[in-house]
Amino acid sequence: MFEYFSHLWQLFLLCPDHLAVLSIIPVTAFVTWAHVWMALRMVFYPIHFFGFHIGRLPIGWQGIVPRKAGRISGIITDNTLKKIGSLSEFLDAMDPDEMANIIGNQVDAQLEHLIDEVMHERNVVLWENLPYSIKRRIYEHAHKQLPTVLHDLVIDLTSHVESLVDMRDMVVHQMENDRRLMVTMFLKVGSKEINFIWHISALIGCCFGLIQMLVWFVVPWHWTVPFWAAVWGLLTNWIAIWMVFNPVYPHYVRYPQFFRRTTNRKFPWLVPVVPRIGTYNIQGAFMKRQEEVSDVFAKVVTEELITLKTIMMEMMYGDKKEKTRQIVKKHINPIMDTPLVRTTLQLSLGPKEYAKLKTDLIDRSIEITMVPVCDPAFNASRARKIFKMFRDRIRDLTPHEFQNLLRPAFKEDEWILIVLGGVTGFIAGTIHLFVAFL
């Protein structure tokens, strides 16, 4: 047997193209590694369209994820986020009573300034000439009423959040307005899988290069070099992406184990062990990391996507803001309708101006309430309250539900990446043919 292979090797060395044939394996591995890297970059970058237009026809490229941010975020919301929980659950977990106290303390400190500001806009002469004793009584009345009003308002908004905010619209609007956030989220959640696709592609390229080299001995035709390079380019991108998500469910196989990987991933990567029967889980690279990804995704979502700020911004300024105003009006108006305030202001301003004043006060109340809501520290404290709930529910997702956290990024226009691998492989194969074989 040894003599037979030795004879084949001697015949191979006599072949005039033997060095070129040997170069197939490293060239295929490198080209595969390079074009997969390029394909992965094209999934996420550039954030904004790069190119030009001929009429309405765009000539250029924009990353698949930022270009399809609205559609992809809608799929993630429908298939995953809505199964994790509702907005009312998230707000309940944020502790509405505590929120009302924190917001109330900050608004209370600016309450007199708010009243002065509104009155100056409506009738500065009247307000400046009004006796301070009357102003003082109005201030004291507002301070006294505010805690109860804000508490009831926050509880009311929390209980009606599902009718005031559409989670899907909120997420889609946010992602379309900040496409970089969409890319950042996917890169944080799938960083290990993206690196896995990139690096495993070189190994797949080596295997395909070996096959191509063996084919050369049977069909030593020059045209096969770019042809097979194109085929390997197509297959590599498809196989690499497939391996990230498949198999969806774990499949455990037993095998004789003589080495184990070092936990610190430093050299040496493998160390010998006493021979034994080991167990290996054959499952998609992303699917194996459900517990680890749950922590990362929960952190991203609770700190950047579904936050108190984003919910309140959508509630106060979104498509259903008029419905929110009606709830705010219901709670703010009692402050203005007490005998002292109503009589004093109606006599001073008149019924029409008094009605306009109430509208102004509602607008300014919304604005001033949003100040503490937009505070990063306040949002961080709310995020900590829902992080554990969010993380645990992601861990409880079925494998099919879990893969939808990352799968939409690759599923959208996936065929472009596969075709790109074939085109790139063909170009590289053609260059290899002219440089090494001709």
From TrEMBL:
Keyword flag rRNA-binding: no
Transmembrane regions: 20-40, 196-219, 225-245, 415-437
Lineage: superkingdom: Bacteria
Keywords: Membrane, Transmembrane, Transmembrane helix
Name of protein: DUF445 domain-containing protein
